[in-house]
Amino acid sequence: MADDIIIEHRIATISEHRRIAEAVGWSGSFDWQTVPLSLEASVSGVVAVVGERVVGMGRLVGDGVKYFYIQDVAVLPEYQGQGVGKAIIDRLLLHVAQTAPSTAFVGLFSTEQATEVYASRGFTAGDMTGMFRLVEPT
């Protein structure tokens, strides 16, 4: 990773989150009205910064004790392939290691393109099958 890229321990702002999400093609992946509450409920987060500009982000969601999920890891296209995503993941995992009182479960969903990045950080499918379901509000 380039020396001018700094990893800061904080959750991306709403505008930073949206700018990066849109830059990586995730425009339709979020209900933008609920993003502020979702970000506020995060367990932890990190951003990658060059100068004054946030160029990458990632956050942890979950119970903050035993179960953590890595969420919204994204890096601006012009900074991809430079180790920024790996640095974000490493910092999130460090947070888990430093705060969980015992062995923690860290899960995630990955895009096809990011599978190798997560595998390089020790993530495997193991003996589980990832599943999800969308639930509409009543």
Task: Tell me what you see in this structure.
It contains 4 helices and 5 strands; from the N terminus they run E-H-H-E-E-E-H-E-H. It has 138 residues and is of the alpha+beta class. It has one domain: 3-Layer(aba) Sandwich (Aminopeptidase). The chain has a 5-stranded mixed sheet, sandwiched between helices. A hairpin with a 2-residue loop joins strand 2 and strand 3. The radius of gyration is 15 Å and the shape is globular. The termini are far apart.
CATH superfamily: Gcn5-related N-acetyltransferase (GNAT)
Oligomeric state of the chains present here: single chain
CATH class: Alpha Beta
Individual helix count: 4
Rg from Cα: 15 Å
Major sheet details? 5 strands, mixed
Q: How many strands?
A: 5
Uncertain ranges: none
Second CATH tier, the architecture:
3-Layer(aba) Sandwich
Q: Kindly report the CATH topology.
A: Aminopeptidase
**Mean pLDDT metric:** 95
Strand percentage lies at: 15-25%
Helix content: 25-40%
Secondary structure class reads alpha+beta
Strand order of the largest sheet: 1-2-3-4-5
Shape field: globular
What is the succession of H and E elements? EHHEEEHEH
Distance between the termini: 46 Å
